[in-house]
Amino acid sequence: MRLGVLDVGSNTVHLLVVDAHRGGHPMPMSSSKAALRLSESMDDHGRITEAGAGRLIATVAEFADLARNSQCVELMPFATSALREATNSDEVLHRVRTETGVDLQVLSGADEARLTFLAVRRWFGWSAGRILNLDIGGGSLEMSNGGDEEPDVALSLQLGAGRLTREWLRDDPPGKRKVAMLRDWLDAELVVPAKQLREAGKPDLAVGTSKTFRSLARLTGAAPSAAGPRVRRTLTSSGLRQLIAFISRMTAADRAELEGVSSDRSQQLVAGALVAEASMRALSLDSIEICPWALREGLILRKLDAEPNGAPLTSPPGIRGVVGGTMSS
């Protein structure tokens, strides 16, 4: 069966089309992105602006058409922190549903962490033992720790790379003083979450998911994406410190020239690196493994798990409302 996952994040809208069946490895068929920067389309009252809502509706409509043209039998549309926190979220979601026919659902931060953890567990398997996972998004940082497919601890913190760039690193380049201040603040913010994660149990494997971690690993010497998803990639704390010293002196335009860094991501790369560094320091991690699967794959896996072979697609337990209806031509 061909499924589409429509991910409305703080920075981008991403449509992933996969061929999948229960018990099998979801095979990606296509991946399409649009830089929407929804988190930057909020007014002083936390409302998504009319212009921002209009761009969201147009993008969702475009990607829904693309999913239909890709012969997806179902579209799973969801949104994360930007719409989760918008004070007019219900109004915007109603407009999206009315004008595009797409029932866009908002995931909680804890669900983000849990579904991402599921994808990581499936990728590395049971032999990995207890896994600790970190995922840096535009608006939030998800952290989880567990020995099964459901983590013992699943946390979501408002420490996303885009959010911290807007709140802390507005200058370009950001400057040593601001970087030092953000480092100290992150250390304080992570004391309690790190304690919760450590109390769940010592991990056998520490993992990083998200585009931010993949970019940081690439910039510190990991294999490029062209090498394929099964090549082992790691990010070390020492390499990350050296990278931060380098990229924090560069402008966003210069960072966009680095291999593996898009112009859309270059502005928030320093903040993302500081969050990664602080998280690893708080958890005493010298290195982490990079996992190519994350939230979108977790949604697909949870969906397939809930369906018997050959049964019609319906919303599975645990993510009710996230899965949209069967697509019509």
Automatic annotation (TrEMBL):
<protein>
    <recommendedName>
        <fullName>Ppx/GppA phosphatase N-terminal domain-containing protein</fullName>
    </recommendedName>
</protein>
<dbReference type="InterPro" id="IPR043129">
    <property type="entry name" value="ATPase_NBD"/>
</dbReference>
<feature type="domain" description="Ppx/GppA phosphatase N-terminal">
    <location>
        <begin position="17"/>
        <end position="306"/>
    </location>
</feature>
<comment type="similarity">
    <text>Belongs to the GppA/Ppx family.</text>
</comment>
<dbReference type="InterPro" id="IPR050273">
    <property type="entry name" value="GppA/Ppx_hydrolase"/>
</dbReference>
<dbReference type="InterPro" id="IPR003695">
    <property type="entry name" value="Ppx_GppA_N"/>
</dbReference>
<dbReference type="Pfam" id="PF02541">
    <property type="entry name" value="Ppx-GppA"/>
</dbReference>
